[in-house]
Fold this sequence. Notes:
Chain A is mainly α and 161 residues long. Chain A has a domain at 21-57 and 96-154. Helix content of chain A is 57%, strand content 0%. Chain B has helices at residues 2-5, 10-28, 36-45, 57-81, 90-98, 121-140, 145-154, 158-182. The longest helix of chain B is centred in the middle third of the chain and has 25 residues, at 57-81. Classes of the chains: A mainly alpha (161), B mainly alpha (187).
Amino acid sequence: MAVDTKNPAPATGGSSMATGPERLWPYLLLGIVLGIVFTRSEVVSWFRIQEMFRFQALHMYGIIGSAVGVGAVSVWLIKKLGLRSLTDRPMEIPEDRFQAPGTQYWAGGTAFGLGWGLMGACPGPIYVLIGNGVTVMIVAFLSALAGVWTYGALRHRLPHS
Amino acid sequence: MEFLTRPWPWYVAGPVIGLTVPLVYLYAGRKWGVSSTFRDVCAATFPRNLEYFSYSWRESGGWRLTMAVGLVIGGLIAGLTGPSEVMISEATRADLSALGITDFGGLMPSEIFSWAGLATPAGVILIVVGGFLVGFGTRYANGCTSGHAISGLSALRVTSFVAVLGFFAGGLIATHLLLPLILGGGS
């Protein structure tokens, strides 16, 4: 059966799942679960990130690799089966798989990597570390906001493609 | 319940993190990513007529801002219920000791990642400069470890692959060239 992602089926339609408006509490729950997982698996630890960039343990590579594996199979299945979202919002799965990677990806990526290597935390872990009581990461958060704001201000002068 | 208070192996944590991608798609079709929340906060507090921050952050970002609040709460719960010492490899411990790190008792080395540490040159560079680069880089590259490394690679995107190569290039430079200069130590 062809699934039209642009026009949600009418209430009488063939969708087997009950649909409803998007709520916020599932995202709060997801964040709490991820905050616990990120802490227990120690991906929020500066020490673990150092271990990764020194190639001295499998841990972080195992986490990223298995996460991507599970994610890739899931995305493939969602596309293959033409699944729709519970709230009937369209799937925002990127379709531009072979888009040529412009300057922004390697230049921005390297800038991010420099920060990741120094600070030992990417955006998710910044939030989780604040919760864990490493309150000085509030400064890291504010500094990241300043970086994002600077990008927003300089955007037109930076090479992207 | 002991399972919840002990460190988790990678083969448990990785798949759970990976499942976030289809869960968020199947709930509302949204592409999972965390760093866009920084843009949302800028748009909400200090947009200053910049085009990049002129969008409906409530509609585009309400979901992920809520998730970010959850991340803080999850971190709080985990911090109160579990151990904080990270059992890194002996080789890493030796390398970091040579750089002058002495406190291995928490998630982060407290001599740098604390309010007292922030008053030192190393603390300023690692926390303030590091944070700035993470924020700037993630928006320039249009994604971070969640948006590019997990969601983007899951969709098999070339652009995400290049961005992740950049993440590692930058991280290797920071670890092997910059940290020895910043932390003194070195061999």
